[in-house]
Amino acid sequence: MQKVVSSAVPPRLTPELLQQFRQVFSECPYGFNRPAIYRQAGFMHMDEDTMGDLLANGYRRNGNHMYTMQCPGCADCVSIRLDPARFRPDRNQKRVWRKNRDIRVQVTPLTMSEEHLRLLDKFLRLRFSSIDQHANSYYSQFFLTSISPCFELRYWADDILVGVSIIDAAPGWLNAVYFYFDPDQGERSPGTFNILNLVHFCRKHRIPWLYLGYCIDGLSAMNYKKRFQPYELLLNGVWQSAE
């Protein structure tokens, strides 16, 4: 059983900001047979403090929209974040870091290149074969944005593009938007390496919070984030640190 060691209340959002959000009804984006409700709003521009406040209140970015899940009878989407200064890798994470010491990290603006689209399509085709998803729509509708500073971290092994991490970043926070990788490089544990590198990036640039999105119990593609400890979960409107 995890022990709660501290808690923190996120900053209060202004009524003027909150009144811009509306409910959008949809199917569950994570494959559960239940209805979903997004509380979302679209923006053309946003200052980094407002973006940070929304992230701290459990909101996520999708293109130029910010949203949070408010599904009836379901609270499985729980926001998770790390304090990079407090993170301590376990034995397996240390092994993954050593295994990828040959990786070269390239930090660039978000780029919708043919090479990137081919790799993302390969990732989606092999990892989510039952869902009709395409790289072009991911970039044009999900990744590209004008409301936050958005970057890519490209992971290279010699001339092989191992993976691409899409991030929003500012001095006060880093938002992990999405990560995709070459399935042929799966033995490297690229998902684990990506989060370890994001922690390293935050420490290097003295960024105090790393937002990892949602973790969902029973969904391994999301719940693995709890392996990075100590982490904080947003529960009942309060960030609770557990270890």
Contiguous low-pLDDT stretches (5 residues minimum) are: none
Class by SSE composition: alpha+beta
Strand order within the widest beta sheet: 1-13-12-6-11-10-9-8-7
DSSP strand tally = 13
Q: What's the CATH class label of the largest domain?
A: Alpha Beta
Describe this structure in words.
The structure is a single chain. With 243 residues, the protein is an alpha+beta fold. The protein has two domains: 4-76, no CATH class; 81-235, Gcn5-related N-acetyltransferase (GNAT) (Aminopeptidase, 3-Layer(aba) Sandwich), CATH 3.40.630. It is 27% helix and 34% strand. It has seven helices and 13 strands. The chain has a nine-stranded mixed beta sheet with strand order 1-13-12-6-11-10-9-8-7, with helices on both faces. The chain has a four-stranded antiparallel beta sheet with strand order 2-3-5-4.
Comma- or semicolon-separated keywords:
2 domains; alpha+beta; 9-stranded mixed β-sheet; 34% strand; 243 residues; 13 strands
Strand-helix topology:
Blueprint: E1 4-8, H1 15-18, E2 22-27, E3 35-42, H2 48-56, E4 60-62, E5 65-69, E6 78-82, H3 91-99, E7 104-109, H4 114-127, H5 135-143, E8 150-157, E9 160-170, E10 173-181, H6 190-205, E11 210-215, H7 220-223, E12 231-235, E13 238-242
Parallel strand pairs: 10-11
Antiparallel strand pairs: 1-13, 2-3, 3-5, 4-5, 6-11, 6-12, 7-8, 8-9, 9-10, 12-13
